[in-house]
Design a protein that fits this description.
five-stranded antiparallel beta sheet; 12 helices; 22% strand
Length: 417
């Protein structure tokens, strides 16, 4: 079904409820945890026709959109009136705002602007029985009773179908400073994060860490990217700040890097001098498709305290090498917000191999106070591992909420809980 309005979505759900028909909602289909998988007996409810940007309140810095609008369309519409949407990730041209809300998507700017949850002021959702919950709040502060929109943000379509939203915008940054730096010691990288955040006075917008194996993958042929450094290093960090004055902010940015070099937090650096150079640096970070040339890859996103990252990454890499000496393990991620991406290519794409890798990735997380999902959600892939990150009481409450709002289990059956 391809509805054009919330009223049509509600009608579909009323009929499905009457017939006991399971429903799986589709957005841009860019998720990585099989959260939109549908079986032959499940109805697909696509948001592809709900693509209206209903309006932009420039003074209030909000945008009202339907669920099928893509992230890139939102960014471009905001830019056209000199405003800025803070959420950004690689699938921006295809991923929809409805899917981003349903999964509470993160991305490259979380350290500055937060997850999608932080940008949603109001939303509208259709429940499993066809009732419409319209909470299209446009205010920053509305402390009037339960914040019902939070039930649907991050619930992956299991509690309701998000149809419209009011999202928060920001003033368009007037400056952008980007650098790629190299470090030889993980503790120095941790100190670098604190140093840059402090010295930039709240302007730090991205702090992307790449282990050597991943950087080599995206910076050597046949990859299009090229390392600007003459030597290889254990760690590379892509830094970016967004501010209000290009000249003054560039001076501040360079001074912070020079102090980091003097304090031996970094050993080499290159600073983008143009938009093209900035884009080239980001393309290396985002060139995850380079993994596919080795065959099937298994990709994970986890979250854990920054202080635990090195021990966790070392353990995962060592376990991968023991089990698959000829395999490959790549680690990179949004270190500034505690998110690591871990990927493997081991020459075998079987379900048995995936389960063994799952144990390597998810098994140690409890000891490191980590979470099985940082930004990609649970879907089907991580459902059996959710107990690593949630207590029995939390899981029981999640199931109670699901049973209350969707007693027939019609919405995205089998996902999350």
């Amino acid at each position: 079904m391809r509805p054009r309005t919330t009223v049509e979505v509600a009608e579909v759900m009323k009929r499905c409820a009457a017939m006991g028909q399971p429903v799986v909602t589709h957005g841009g289909l860019t998720g990585l945890v099989r959260g939109a998988d549908a079986s032959p007996d499940e109805l697909i409810l696509s948001m592809e026709r709900m693509t209206r940007i209903e309006g932009i309140d420039v003074a209030g810095r909000t945008m009202t959109v339907e669920a099928g609008v893509t992230l890139q369309q939102i960014q471009e519409a905001a830019a056209a009136v000199d405003l800025y949407y803070g959420v950004d990730y690689g699938a921006r041209g295809t991923a929809t705002i409805g899917g981003g809300i349903a999964t509470n998507a993160g991305g490259n700017r979380v350290i500055r602007f937060g997850m999608t949850r932080a940008s949603v002021l109001g939303l509208e959702a259709v429940l499993a029985d066809g009732r419409v919950i319209s909470s299209m709040n446009t205010m920053m502060k509305n402390n009037s009773g339960y914040d019902l929109k939070q039930l649907f943000i991050g619930s992956e379509g299991t509690l309701g179908v998000v149809t419209r939203a009011v999202i928060r915008l920001h003033e368009m940054p007037a400056s952008q400073c980007t650098a790629l730096v190299a470090a030889t010691d993980f503790d120095a990288v941790v100190r670098l994060l604190k140093h840059m955040d402090r010295k930039l006075g709240g302007q730090l917008a991205a702090f992307e860490l790449m282990w050597q194996a991943y950087f080599d993958l995206v910076s050597t042929p046949p990859a299009q990217g090229r390392s600007p450094f003459a030597e290889r290093y254990p760690y590379y960090v892509l830094l970016e700040s967004l501010g209000a004055d290009q000249d003054a902010d560039s001076v501040r940015f360079m001074q912070a890097l020079e102090e980091a070099m003097a304090d031996e937090l970094i050993v080499d650096a290159t600073v983008a001098q143009s938009l093209d150079q900035r884009d080239a640096l980001w393309r290396m970070r985002d060139s995850v498709e380079e993994m596919f040339k080795f065959g099937k890859s298994f990709n994970y996103d986890v979250s854990l305290p920054v202080s635990e990252m090195r021990a966790y990454a070392d353990g995962v890499s060592a376990a991968a090498a023991r089990n698959w000496p000829q395999g490959r393990c790549w680690i990179f991620g949004h270190m500034g917000d505690g998110n690591l991406h871990v990927s493997f290519s081991v020459g075998d794409g079987s379900d048995e191999t995936k389960h063994r890798i799952d144990e390597i990735v998810y098994g140690p997380l409890a000891a490191f106070r980590g979470a099985v999902s940082a930004e990609h959600g649970i879907g089907l892939d991580k459902r059996s591992w959710l107990g690593v990150s949630r207590t029995d009481e939390e899981l029981a409450l999640m199931r109670q909420l699901k049973d209350f709002l969707d007693p027939q289990g019609l919405l995205n059956p089998g996902k999350v809980v």
